[in-house]
Amino acid sequence: MKTAILAISVTILAASLIFYPQESLEASKRGLNMWWKIVFPSLLPFFIVSELLIGFGVVKFIGVLLEPLMRPFFRVPGVGGFVWAMGLASGFPAGAKFTARLRDEGVISQIEAERLVSFTNSSNPLFIFGAVAVGFFKNPQLGFILAVAHYLGNICVGLLMRFHGKETSSKQKRQGEKTSIKAALTALHQTRMKDNRPIGKLLGDAVNTSIQTLLMVGGFIILFSVINKILYLLHITEMLGNVVSIIFANFSFPEKISIPFISGLFEITLGSQLISDVKGATLLQQAMITSLILGFSGLSIHAQVASILAQTDIRFKPFFIARILQGIFASLFTLLLWKPIYIRLSKNEQPVNAAPADIFLDGSWVHQAFQKMTEIGPLVTIFTLTLYVWILFIRLKKQTN
């Protein structure tokens, strides 16, 4: 049955590409523009630096110091604090990438990796504030409530997932008892001595693995951008939206918000944009649905994470369950914190539907910086890919010699 469903689905997708070539091309270009202008140049530095930090033993140093915090609350080693911080700063799918890397190094066990990956993947603040709140809703105050709800939901998921599995590494526990600076420095030195690659080799490997991961991410972004468009053209999104609208009606949500919600389940950027354009829904309803899809992350992100985890023994099911939980938590926190956070900020700063604050207006330094990043993003991508091809060529040449 599974084989038949997969075969039929792929056949329908292939036929749709033939019948809707122009629409598929436009959707593909949209995904490509997002990847090479924003995703690639913004994630690449985090990926490369993280690989260097792991190779030089800095992550192990941080892990020893953070053991007393991460072990009692989340039942993961202290290095999980590094993964959490990097995942929060750089966004999807960094948490999965770094968790898989630590699992390959043998720093964490399988169960610990499944707990860790469940709450270290999140939207970065720039996306929530810049793209969603300001770009789509034209409302910077909304960014605060979305961000607070999103990250509180993340913490709740981490606290719940600590009960996942029964395995606990006694070796990691013994290491966690030594939390002095001296013990951390010793762990740093031992890790560096164990990984005896020269700096040039370490840097080349970091660039190589980071670009490979980002190429995979780009492929999924383009693919799901096309799939989302095809589903809309085939009226499948509309049919699913009709089912969801029945559920939303029980919570007094307007019917028009169901189709943007379905689109958001596949790709959060498009979903957030469509939700912001819904007429007839209150801003609170729009914020709750946006928080829900930001927490769930979208099937495009799920596919990226599944591809990364497939290279290890980390199971995908706990991550999927955690995304559902975070979507629910984030939506509830948006409702609970609406008056104490958003309404108070709106009264102090500006009316609900007023123009964004000066810092986000055209001509401000934030706007100019964002515009500059989108202008140089393609150049950074092209230069880095050229460097990657050159490194790959040198290594292949050495192997043949």
UniProtKB/TrEMBL annotation:
Coiled coil: none annotated. Pfam families: Gate (PF07670). It comes from the Bacteria. The chain crosses the membrane at residues 43-66, 73-92, 142-163, 202-224, 230-250, 287-308, 320-338, 376-396. InterPro entries: Gate_dom, Spore_IM_YlbJ. The keyword Transmembrane applies. Residues 37-135, 214-310 form the Nucleoside transporter/FeoB GTPase Gate domain. Keywords: Membrane, Transmembrane, Transmembrane helix. NCBIfam families: spore_ylbJ. This is Sporulation integral membrane protein YlbJ.
